Amino acid sequence: MSVFTFIAQNEQDTERLAQQLAKLTVPGTVMTLDGDLGAGKTRFSQGFARAIGVQGVVNSPTFTIIKEYMGSKLPFYHMDVYRISIEEADELGLDEYFYGDGVTLVEWSSLIEDILPPQRLEMKIERIGESDRKFTIIPHGKPYTQWCSDAQENGWLTHNGQ
Question: Whole-model pTM?
């Protein structure tokens, strides 16, 4: 398994990462975000939503679990599964979103790992200072591995080995 890293020194860097990834999305793209409260999951989600053309306010769907937005070219499905069990997640039919015609971003995804699609872009966010964040990025599947390899060649991700 390849592992890549991105260091964000501020919120603008987090948004730049989101923008770079948004350029690569296609229907069925699934990205997962894990990290402590305040790590930057929602900031990343907001930057990503703006980059795919979502208008209006994007906030964490903590109590609604799923929020659907229309981007300029693709629907955006923003999930927060912190408050549900894996059984509840399975009953909600999340796979319809994962394999649908939009882009799905799942916050707290490690809680439902067993039902996540095998192909996805996994991101873990850690605070490493007042405003610095470390994104550990693990591609699952050929398209996501290619995204990360290209990003490394373009100098915005660092490869940490396999």
Answer: 0.92
